[in-house]
Automatic annotation (TrEMBL):
NCBIfam families referenced in this protein's UniProt entry, alphabetically: MTH1187 family thiamine-binding protein
Ranges of residues in domain Thiamine-binding protein: 3-92
UniProt organism field: Streptomyces silvensis
Gene3D superfamilies in the record: 3.30.70.930
Signal peptide from the UniProt entry: none
Family: Belongs to the UPF0045 family.
Protein name: Thiamine-binding protein domain-containing protein
Cellular-component GO terms for this entry: cytosol
């Protein structure tokens, strides 16, 4: 499965990069395939391991912010591995054709 999620601290002002970095650090240290862009962090793996990483990333922000907003989208496809790469490669192949 692939989960794309964003964690936003609330009540800490406009500059939230430091807080978001705490969440991304948890994801990167998990060892699971992941990618971060301007809006979301995506992580790929089995249900329990991915959801554990999301929970720990949220907890890292929650430890420093009075309120946290989470947006999460999941692509659940049993048997598919390396979906983050293959899905993008498919789109790029269609764009180049």
């Amino acid at each position: 499965m692939i989960v794309a999620f964003s964690v936003t601290p609330l009540g800490v002002g406009e500059d939230v990069g430091e807080y978001v970095a705490d969440a991304v650090r948890v994801v990167r240290e998990s060892g699971l395939p992941n990618r971060t862009d301007a809006m979301f962090t995506s992580v790929e793996g089995e249900w329990d391991e991915v959801m554990d990483v999301v929970k720990r990333a949220v907890a890292a922000v929650e430890a420093r912010a009075p309120r946290v907003s989470v947006v999460l989208k999941a692509d659940i496809r049993p048997g598919v591995t390396d979906g983050m790469t293959s899905k993008v490669e498919t789109v790029e192949r269609h764009l180049s054709g």
